[in-house]
Amino acid sequence: MHTHLTGPSLSLSLSLSPSLSLSFTHTHTHTHNPPLSPLSPHLTSPPLSPLSPPVQTTSNNVQAIIESRVEKRTKGVYVPVGGKRMLAFLDDLNMPANDDFGSQPPLELLRLWIDYGFWYDRQKQTLKCVKDMFLLASMGPPGGGRTHISGRLQSRFNLINMTFPTVSHTHTTT
């Protein structure tokens, strides 16, 4: 399945298959970039990198996808292409399967970045500091292939729980 969305300031292509494939073109033309706050209306202006980790996604895949969206600024420091800010959206955060030790390596890589601001270059084994990146994640309740995420990762996010409305909430009386 292939999806292509186009708007005045972005173009997003997703190819849904067992391996992740996505494309993003950001054509925002603001000359003034105000600082982002958590509730800023400009939150959609940074490049968006959607990640939907299927069960077979590895930490190598997640790291490669994010690194494809950043460029080297100085030794060991990487920023989003064009010097912008990047919002990485992680759909189905609790989909990666647990390994033999009960951990979820793709999520542990993200937790490492959240806690310390870096991960390691897998070939040179040096630090790679990724700056100006924000994470936004969504997930469903555990069950049906979805697992529990670790408390260590969950504690790093601000959580919003949304439940389905009941029939009595969807009908209004006038």
TrEMBL record:
Residues 26-57 are annotated as: Disordered. SUPFAM superfamilies: P-loop containing nucleoside triphosphate hydrolases. One of its GO terms (cellular component) is dynein complex. GO terms for molecular function: dynein intermediate chain binding; dynein light intermediate chain binding. InterPro entries: DHC, P-loop_NTPase. GO terms for biological process: microtubule-based movement. This is Dynein heavy chain AAA module D4 domain-containing protein. It comes from Hucho hucho.
